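[User] Could I get a sequence and structure tokens?

[Assistant]
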Amino acid sequence: MKFLLEVDVDDAASAEDAARELGRVLRYWAGSLKYYALEPGAGEAVLDSGHREVGRWTIVGS
């Protein structure tokens, strides 16, 4: 199995703000994965702190 996480980071954000937002996304999804079947085809949109879609995670075959 391969876990793919793609997140678009705001180019206009400072490096500090971008790191903070990316850290928040990673913590949120790390804690939420237990609620998903980790099998090929599983996936979900990734939202930022403003509830805007900024990416997606997906489980694919190896």
